[in-house]
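Input record (Table S2, row 407):
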Amino acid sequence: MSANVKSNGAVAHVSQKTDRYQYHDYYNIDELLEEDHILAREAVREWVKKEVSPIIEDYSERATCPHHLFKGLAEIGAFGPSLPAEYGCGGMDEIAYGIIMQELERGDSGIRSMASVQGSLVMYPIYRFGSEAQKRHYLPKLASGEMIGCFGLTEPDHGSNPSGMVTNIRKDGNDYILNGAKMWITNSPVADMAVVWAKDEEGRIRGMIVERGMEGFTTPEIKGKWSLRASITGELVFEDVRIPAENLLPDVMGLKGPLSCLSKARYGIAWGAIGAALDCYDSALRYSLEREQFGKPLAGFQLTQKKLAEMITEITKAQLLAWRLGTLANKGKATPAQISMAKRNNVHMALEIAREARQIHGGMGITNEYPCMRHMMNLETVLTYEGTHDIHLLITGMDVTGINAFK
Ligand code: TGC
Ligand code: FAD
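Output record (flavin-adenine dinucleotide complex):
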C-alpha cells in the first residue's frame, strides 16, 4: 500500500486494499433485531469500509490517530447513540448503540475507542449527573464532534483500584483548586475537555469538567504503544488548576459516579469485541478457502476446520450474550455484574480468535495485508482497559458468592 500524507495529517492513498468483509450470522440473530438496528449497522459498515479500512493499517503502523475521522463518527451518529435526541444525540436504544460499536470495532478497536470515550465516558456522565446548563452547553457540541472529550479516572498508582485516587480538589472561594495526575487517558492530547474524577476535602469522589486552556492543565502524549496504535493516549496533569464551582457535576458523589460510566462503556465493548472477532474470522475463512497447500485449500484440512468451527461457535455464543444483554439494558435491567461477564467473555473470545485466525494466515498473518495481527495487538489493551480480565472475573465471583475478594 502506498500513501501521501496531506498537510492536515489525513492520508491520501494512491492504491488501497479492498475491504472484502462479509457479516456472519450463524444463528439468524438478525431475526431478533429491529429494522432500525439493521439500518444503523449497514450505515456504519459502509462508513467503515469507505473511511476506515483503506487507511487503518497505515495509521496503525505509523502510530497516528486519524483525528479527521472524529467528524465522520459524529455524522454517522456514533457519539452517544442511545442518549436523548433533545440534546443532539441519537435517541436510539441500547442494542443500536451496541451494534454501532460492533461495526466500528470491526474496523479497529481504536476507532471504537474514539466513539466509546466520547459517548459513554464523556457525554453519558454529563447527561446522567450534569446540570441542565451543562447538558445544554456540552452535549450538542460533543454529539456533533465540535468538541472532543476524554475521561480521567486511572492514575499512575491507581488503576484497578480507582478508589485509592489521590487527585484532589480544595475549595477556594467560589472555585476549586485541582491537583494531581491521570494516566492512560484515551484522546487526552487532542481533547478540548476532560471529565475528571477527584477527591474533595472530605475524601468524596467528585466529577468535574476541565477545559483545555485552563492554566496549569496539560495533556502529554504517551508514546511507544504496541497496541491500539491508531488511538491517541496521554496523561492529564493538574497543577493548581482553578475550576469554577459550576464545572462540578452536581448529581453524583462517590465511586459509583465513574463506575456507572464504565458500565455504559463496558457494555459497548462487549458488543465491539465481536466486531474484531468477526473481521478475523471472515479473513481466515476466506484465506483458508483461497490458499492451497498439499494440493487442496487449507479449509479442506480437518485442523483448519476445527479452528474455523470453534471460532464461529464462540462468535455465535458472544452474539447471543450481547443481544440478551442488550434486551436487559433496554429495560434498564442489565446489572454491572452481567455487563462485566459479557465484557470479559467477549473480549477474551475475540483475542483468542485473532490468534487462531493469525495462525490460519501463516506467515502472511503477521503482515498488514490482513487485519488479524492488528486486532490481536489492539485486543490486548481491550482486555486490560475498562477493568482487566481478572477484575471482571472477581466481580462475577463476588456476585455469585456474595464475598468481596477485593477487600
Ligand atoms: P465498590 O465498593 O464495589 O463500589 C463503590 C460504589 O460503586 C457502585 N458500583 C457501581 N455502580 C455502577 N456501575 C458499576 N459497574 C459499579 N460497580 C460498583 C457500588 O454499588 C458502590 O455504590 P455505593 O452506593 O455503595 O457507594 O468499589 P471498590 O472500590 O471495591 O471497587 C470495585 C472494583 C474493583 C470492581 C472497581 O474499582 C473497578 O471496576 N475497578 C476497575 C477500574 C476500571 O475499570 N477502570 C477503567 C478506567 S476507564 C478506561 O479504562 C477507559 S478505556 C476507554 C476506551 O478507550 O475505550
Ligand atoms: P493494575 O491495576 O496495576 O493491574 C496490573 C495487573 O494486576 C492486572 O493484570 C490486574 O488484573 C492485576 N490485579 C490488580 N488488582 C488485582 C486483584 N485485586 N486481584 C488479582 N489481580 C489483580 N483509564 C481512564 O481512566 N481513561 C481512559 O481513557 C483510559 N484509556 C486507556 C487506554 C489504554 C490504551 C490503556 C492501556 C489503558 C487505558 N485506561 C484508561 C486505563 C485502564 O483502565 C487501566 O490500565 C486498567 O484499569 C488497569 O489498571 P493498571 O494498568 O494500573 O493495572
